[in-house]
Amino acid sequence: MATNTHTTSPLSPSSSRRRMSPIRKISLTVGVLYVITFVSIPTLALYKAVKDDAGAFVLGAGSTTGVQWGALSEVIVGLAGIGTAVVLYPVAKRVSQTAALGFVAARLIETCLIFVSVVSLLSIITLRNDVAGTANADPATLATMAHSLMANYTWTFLLSQSLMPVACDLFLGYVLYRSALVPRFFPIIAFIGAPLLLVSDIAIYFGIYAAVSSIALFAALPVAVFELSLGIWLIVKGFKPTPLTVDYPPTRHDHPNTQATAKP
C-alpha cells in the first residue's frame, strides 16, 4: 500500500498573523498624526510670561525652558500637520487631484509659517540669554525688539494655525464627503467650522476682538473637534469599506472600470 509521504508544514506565527492592510496603515498613521497636532495646547500656559509682557520677559531672570518646550511642540505640530497631508495624498488624489494637492499645499504653507513664528520666540530667548545684561545692552532697545518679535509671532500664528486650517479642512472635508471614507458628520463639521473660523480670523485681523477672547475660542472649537475626533476615529476604526479602499493600492493589472476616477 502506498503511503502518503506529503506532510503539510505548520504555519509560522508570522504567516498566521493577519497583516495590516496598506489602507489601514494609512488611516492609522493619519489618525496618530492628527492627534499629535494637539501637543501644543500647553503653550497657552508656557507662553504666558512672554505674551503678557515681552519686554519684561527679555529683561527678567529665570528659566526659559517652558518657552523652549513650547516652541519645540509647535515644530512637532508643523511636521505632524504636513505629515497628515502627505500620508493621505495617495488616497485623496483618487477622489480629487485638486483637493489632494490643495491639502498638501495648505499644510506646507502652514508648517512654513509655524517655523517662522517659532524663530521669533527663539530670538526673544537669545536676546534674554545672550544680550540682556551685557555692558552695552540698552534695556529700552531690547524691550522694543522683544515686543516686535512677539508681534511677529502673534500675526504669524493667526496666518498659520488659525487661517490655514480653514483651507486644510475645506480640502480634506471635500475628499471625505465625496469618498465616504468616514461617516458624513465629519466633513459636515468641517464645512461648518471652516467658514466660522474664517469669519473669526477676519474679525481678529481688524481688531474687533482679541485672538484669546472667548468668542475666538468658540469659533475655533468646531475645527478643533473635527480634527481631534477624526484622528481618534481613524486610529480606532480606520476608513469605511468603500470601492476606493477595497481595491487599494491600485495595480496596473486592474481593469480600468474598477479604478476610482479622480475628480478635478
UniProtKB/TrEMBL annotation:
InterPro entries for the chain: DUF4386
Top-level taxonomic group: Bacteria
UniProt entry tagged with the keyword Transcription regulation: no
Chain segments annotated as transmembrane: 26-47, 67-92, 104-125, 155-176, 188-209, 215-236
Keyword Transmembrane helix: yes
Keywords per UniProt: Membrane, Transmembrane, Transmembrane helix
The protein's name in its UniProt record: DUF4386 domain-containing protein
Organism of derivation: Arthrobacter alpinus
Lineage: Bacteria, Bacillati, Actinomycetota, Actinomycetes, Micrococcales
